[in-house]
Amino acid sequence: MKNVAAYALLGLVWLLHWLPLPLLALLGRGFGLLLHAVGGARRRVALRNVALCFPELNAPQQAALVREHFQWLGRSLLERGVLWHASRERLKRLIQVEGEPRFAEGHKGAVMWLAPHFLGIEIAGMATQLYQQRTGFDVYAPQSNAVLDAALLAGRGRFGTAEFFTRSDGARAIVRAIRRGLVFFNPPDMDFGLRDAAFVPFFGQPAATLLAPSRLAKSLAMTVQPVVADMLPGGQGYRVRFLPPWTDWPTDDPLADAARMNSFIEQQVRLHPAQYFWVHKRFKTRPEGAPPVYD
């Protein structure tokens, strides 16, 4: 039964991708409002995150931001079919790129794409395949359903310039891929606990932040280029910003590098606060003696 439901869901996603994006965006926002209404647990997580990160907003403003966030979330889910099934030509019409999308292709050394967890992160990944030829890879969380997992991998890698690893593959697989010349598409801003991490401020809150991006970049002489995706309103498409590569990162201080990374992500979040991935328990890991953030 689970596989039947998975095939039905994938069929719906395929059908939806034929719709004009403005109509699909409207449906996605409606779907997001439904998720906001029925998804009490994730709504409470988002409200708690927003309250911690935007204390300058009053309670109605924080609630409005979360409500808007869920509408973008609904769009990101329904529009996944466009990314997985639309033609290359249609995707290039929909995805506007800014900056240096071909930096990695022309760079002879190792490269890391630093991609914060905005709701358009799948769009950023697709843009790295559409606008340059160097193969990238990322580390993903396998789906519990094998049908959905296979569809996810097929959709993300359908243009042939992406490889995928899971966290269980370990650090050696990542290092080998980088040494083979692959570009590391790295979303670094999730709470994976304190293994190879430290508490670093994020919006003024202690957040368990990976030190591995800095250490990996330092040990393999990697150049880091931030890549940020914005979903445009009204179904106008998407914008992916390939920002200038960092020339002063990493340093010899992984903790300072993590603070710099979090500060950069915070700056990007403030540009489009409703599009950040607020339903993730970013502050789940707590300093010793600190009370839990989430119920």
Topology of helices and strands:
Elements: H1 2-16, H2 21-38, H3 40-53, H4 59-78, H5 80-85, H6 88-94, E1 95-99, H7 103-106, E2 111-114, H8 121-130, E3 136-140, H9 146-156, E4 162-166, H10 170-179, E5 183-186, E6 197-202, E7 205-210, H11 212-219, E8 223-231, E9 238-242, H12 254-271
Parallel strand pairs: 1-9, 2-5, 2-8, 3-4, 3-5
Antiparallel strand pairs: 6-7, 8-9
Write up what this structure looks like.
48% of the residues lie in helices and 17% in strands. It is α/β, with parallel strands linked by helices and 295 residues long. It starts with a helix and ends in a 24-residue tail after the last helix.
Mean pLDDT: 96
In helices, the fraction of residues equals: 40-55%
**Shape designation:** globular
Number-wise, the strands total: 9
Q: What fraction of residues sit in β-strands? A: 15-25%
- Gyration radius, in Å: 19 Å
The number of distinct structural domains comes to 1
Structural class: alpha/beta
Largest beta-sheet details: 7 strands, mixed
Outline the low-pLDDT stretches.
none
Topology as H/E string?
HHHHHHEHEHEHEHEEEHEEH
Task: Provide a brief overview of the structure.
The protein is α/β, with parallel strands linked by helices. The protein is built from twelve helices and nine strands. The protein has helices at residues 2-16, 21-38, 40-53, 59-78, 80-85, 88-94, 103-106, 121-130, 146-156, 170-179, 212-219, 254-271, and strands at 95-99, 111-114, 136-140, 162-166, 183-186, 197-202, 205-210, 223-231, 238-242.
